[in-house]
Design brief:
The protein contains four helices and no strands. The chain is mostly helical. InterPro entries: FANCF.
Length: 98
């Protein structure tokens, strides 16, 4: 497969996706270390920005035949992350709807 989405590299997308998963973990009320999460206005703003970023990017990829290979690579990256036994179930549920 060949990543052909011009706005971001596959490697950068994967890093951002992992950051988004960390954000989903925070949404459960805890950090990945098990320490309680701290939500303030700035964290909420960041969460909304992440969501909008992925929504817009994935909409762009999925609505264009030009980026079909990139769409398959996104699905592969998500599947690979979810296959890890330590991957949080709450994150798996959200990613399944992307």
């Amino acid at each position: 497969m060949v990543w052909n989405y011009p706005e971001i590299s596959k490697e950068d997308f994967t890093k951002l996706l992992k950051g988004f998963v960390d954000l989903l973990i925070l949404a459960s009320g805890f950090q990945s270390s098990g320490v309680p999460a701290h939500w303030d206005a700035e964290n909420c703003r960041k969460a909304l920005q992440w969501g909008l970023f992925f929504e817009n990017m994935l909409r762009s990829i999925n609505s264009s035949e030009t980026f079909g290979e990139s769409a398959r690579e996104v699905e592969e990256a998500i599947s690979e992350m979810q296959s890890n036994p330590l991957f949080p179930k709450v994150a798996a549920l959200v990613l399944a709807h992307l």
